[in-house]
Design goal:
Elements (H helix, E strand, L loop, with lengths): L7 E5 L3 H13 L3 E5 L2 H11 L3 E5 L7 H10 L6 E5 L4 H9 L4 E4 L4 H16 L8 E4 L2 E4 L4 E4 L2 E3 L3 H12 L7 H8 L9 H15 L11 E4 L3 E4 L7
Parallel strand pairs: 1-2, 1-3, 3-4, 4-5
Antiparallel strand pairs: 6-7, 7-8, 8-9, 10-11
Helix pairs in contact: 2-3, 6-8
Length: about 240
């Protein structure tokens, strides 16, 4: 007997390599997946397959993802939408969220990030998924997206909202180097126009909280700096 899928997804992207990679990875993660390559097929696919969530590329050959979403909303369809976008303009991202999108991932993205975003949206909109899916782990570090609690080696840490968002973004992209521009774009709510040095400051705050126990004992560092490229988080060697 085949396992019951976590949820039904419709993945829409006109690039076959990205579409096939997403479909294969999401099926491996436990989802049932249908695919489409155009906006028109996306609208038809939502009606035909009744998916639980739509993974939707913004740049499509016949109509963009924003138009697809607007048409679905005009038809009274409130399917959750995760946008895939290569667009860097703040206005595009805000537009996607204001017309009824639930979240977005900017290309190039990690598959782990897409899966985490999908599960987060499904928990919020459908109450689907195991509560343990809300917990992201890197080594002995745990972040619970639902309770907003963070623990390292079993000790709860007190983080500000911005520290929490920064840590979450690093953790869902564990092992991947993220530039300051990417971090600013995802953590500082699209509209940040101040000094990019704020990223260095908050990384420093996080390091102090993550790597030093209340008794003053230091733990192996988790956040690494790749000079000239950005930052990444990964478990110390020998941990998973």
């Amino acid at each position: 007997m085949e396992p019951v899928p976590i949820a039904k997804l419709l993945v829409v992207d006109d690039e076959p390599n990205i579409r096939d990679l997403l479909a294969t990875s999401l099926k491996f993660a436990g989802f049932a997946v249908q695919t489409a390559a155009t906006g028109g097929d996306a609208v038809a696919g939502v009606i035909e397959h009744e998916p639980d969530l739509l993974v939707l590329d913004v740049m499509l050959p016949d109509m963009d993802g924003f138009t697809v979403t607007r048409r679905l909303r005009e038809q009274g369809n409130d399917i959750p939408v995760l946008f895939l976008t290569a667009r860097d303009q703040i206005e595009d991202k805000l537009h996607g969220l204001t017309i009824g999108g639930d979240d977005y991932v900017t290309k190039p993205f990690s598959l782990e990030e897409v899966i985490v975003r999908i599960k987060t949206i499904l928990r919020r909109t459908h109450g689907q998924g195991d509560p343990q899916d809300a917990v992201i782990r890197v080594g002995d570090l745990e972040l619970d997206e639902d309770s907003h609690e963070v623990r390292r080696a079993g000790v709860e840490l007190s983080l500000s909202p911005t520290e929490f968002k920064l840590l979450r973004y690093l953790m869902v992209n564990a092992g991947r180097v993220l530039s300051k521009a990417q971090i600013l774009d995802h953590v500082w709510d699209y509209g940040w126009s101040g000094d990019a040095g704020v990223v260095e400051s908050y990384v420093s705050y996080l390091r102090r909280k993550l790597d030093v126990r209340p008794d003053g004992r230091e733990l192996p560092g988790l956040i690494q700096t790749k000079w000239g490229f950005g930052y990444l988080i990964r478990a110390p060697r020998g941990e998973t």
